[in-house]
Amino acid sequence: MDKMDIDEVAARFAEAADTGRRLPPARVQGYFNVWPAFARDQWETLALEKPEYRCLPPSPAAIDRMLETMRWMLWLEVEQRHLLWMRAAQYDWRDIARRFGCCRTTAWRRWQKALQRVAAELHGGKHETIQNRVGQP
Fold first, then answer.
1. Integer angstrom CA distances of residue 99 from 51, 79, 90, 109, 135
2. Which pLDDT score, from 0 to 100, does residue 28 have?
3. Is residue 47 situated within a structural domain?
């Protein structure tokens, strides 16, 4: 595998979150509805909820990349996993900082540290020494 820097690792996590969002919803097997479907008049459908629009399903290659990226999560601690996934899902830094009980800058530093850890594991497990004055997340 080519050496990836933290920007490419962050892009892979963002792509994995987007791929997961585009997967079809999981449904419980074995339940069905026996009521017949009936047509409604146009004025009856005005009060109904807006239809849910879904993007095109992801390609098999995108799903493979998502599964590979999800295996990278095993190298991280639970809080780092939550942090990386929230940022990949495009949560605002303010919401992330509120979730972890820290300021935005600290959340960003912890995110950078988690990305560096994944990049180091991808480079053969050689961890560079990173000074963390705040403490581990």
1. 31, 10, 14, 15, 17
2. 77
3. no
Predicted confidence at residue 63, as pLDDT, reads 96
What are 74-114's pLDDT values in tens digits? 999 999 999 999 999 999 999 999 999 999 999 999 999 99
The answer to whether 108 and 94 have CB atoms below 8 angstroms apart is no
Query: Does residue 137 form part of some domain?
Result: yes
For helices 6-22 and 78-88, the axis angle rounded to 10 degrees is: 70
Buried b (16+ CB within 10 A) or exposed e, 89-99: eeeeeeebbee
DSSP state of 129: P
H or E element that contains 119? helix 104-122
Q: Is residue 72 part of a domain?
A: yes
How many structural domains does the chain have? 1
Range of the domain at 68: 1-22+55-127+133-137
Q: How far apart are CA 33 and CA 122, in angstroms?
A: 48
Structural domain includes residue 18? yes
DSSP string covering 52-89: PP-PPPPPHHHHHHHHHHHHHGGGS-HHHHHHHHHHHT
